[in-house]
Amino acid sequence: MRGRALTAAVVMVAGSLAATGVTGHGDAAEAATVNRTLLSDGFSGDRGDRPDGDVWAAADGRRSVAALDGEGRLALHSVLRTGETFPQAYGRAEARIKVWRRDGAWRALGVLDDEGRVPAGSVETLDSDRVDGDDFHTYTIDWTPTTLTWSLDGRKVLRFTRAEKGEPLMFVLNLASGGYYSNGMLVDWVTVRTPVQVDAAKWKAFTAYRAGQLVEYRKVVYRVREAHTSLPGWQPDLVPALFGKA
Predict the structure, then answer these.
(1) Alpha carbon distance 197, 181 (integer Å)
(2) Which residues pair with 189 in a beta bridge?
(3) Neighbouring residues of 88: CB distance < 8 A, sequence distance ≥ 6
(4) How many whole angstroms separate alpha carbon 92 and alpha carbon 86?
(5) Could you say which residues of the chain have pLDDT below 70?
(6) pLDDT tens-place string over residues 156-206
(7) Nearest-angstrom CA–CA distance, 38 and 195
(8) How far is CA 177 from the centre of its chain?
(9) Is 175:108 a contact under the CB 8 Å cutoff?
(10) SS (H, E, C) the chain
(11) Which backbone phi and psi does 106 adopt, to 5 degrees?
């Protein structure tokens, strides 16, 4: 209710300011970094449905190794990989996974090269990545042209230095661990994002903003949700009805 009232007030004030000619202009746009989503799958669908064939492919060609559980999760019984490769130089892949594992976070959420092979390189263990099968854990891969760093629940556990700089990657959901297989894996969601440079104007009061415009405030980029004229106190971080993080 408060959000709708605020939006209505903004529209009324914007009209009033425009009528008096006080619309103003934002500062010149400058380059800012935002994370662009390349893949996002929350596995919604009916129980027994197969994962999206435009997004996922089974390593052995049989998509029957994975099925939706009807509660927004993927039940996996073998290896599933992304259907496309990601050539971007920098990015982050994340997955929320429930599986028993003695070790090997890099296996639960793994990588392959563009020909489906394990990339060549050297591995450095940073911390233990053992988990039980009672809870979901967030697995993360941050990649650069030269390294891939695995994290488990925000804790860095493994660093991989690439032998081939900047080769494209595919991401893999895999429940194999140290030569053993668990009874199964549940995957809550998977996202893949990459940083990109965009032009964003500095936020400024008494400025007429249009829907979809990008503005930067305190080093965070926001997308304007609704056309309005901003007033003092309506900074992007304080009015989510008008600004959403890009």
Answers:
(1) 42
(2) 96
(3) 38, 194
(4) 11
(5) 1-30, 59-64, 101-106, 176-183
(6) 999 999 999 999 999 999 876 544 455 678 999 999 999 988 888 899 999
(7) 10
(8) 25
(9) yes
(10) CHHHHHHHHHHHHHHHHHHHCCCCCCCCCEEEEEEEEEEEECCCCCCCCCCCCCCEEECCCCHHHEEECCCCCEEECCEEEECCCECCCCEEEEEEEECCECCCHHHHEEEECCCCCCCCEEEEECCCCCECCCCCEEEEEEECCCEEEEEECCEEEEEEEECCCCCCEEEEEECEECCEECCCEEEEEEEEEEEEEEEEEECCCCCEECCCCEEEECCEEEEECCCEECCCCCCCCCCCCCEEEC
(11) -70, -15
User: Would the pTM of this model clear 0.70, i.e. be above it?
Assistant: yes
Beta strand pairing call for 176-177 and 180-181: antiparallel
What is the tens place of the pLDDT at every residue in 133-147? Answer: 789 999 999 999 999
Q: Could you tell me which residues come within 8 angstroms of residue 177 by beta carbon, excluding any fewer than 6 positions away?
A: 101, 102, 103, 104, 107, 108
Q: Which amino acid is at 46?
A: D
Taking phi first (over 0 means left), then psi (-120 to 50 degrees means alpha), and beta for anything else, what does residue 233 get?
Answer: left
Both tokens of 134, joined, read 């009672």
Looking up tokens 């032009």 gives 199
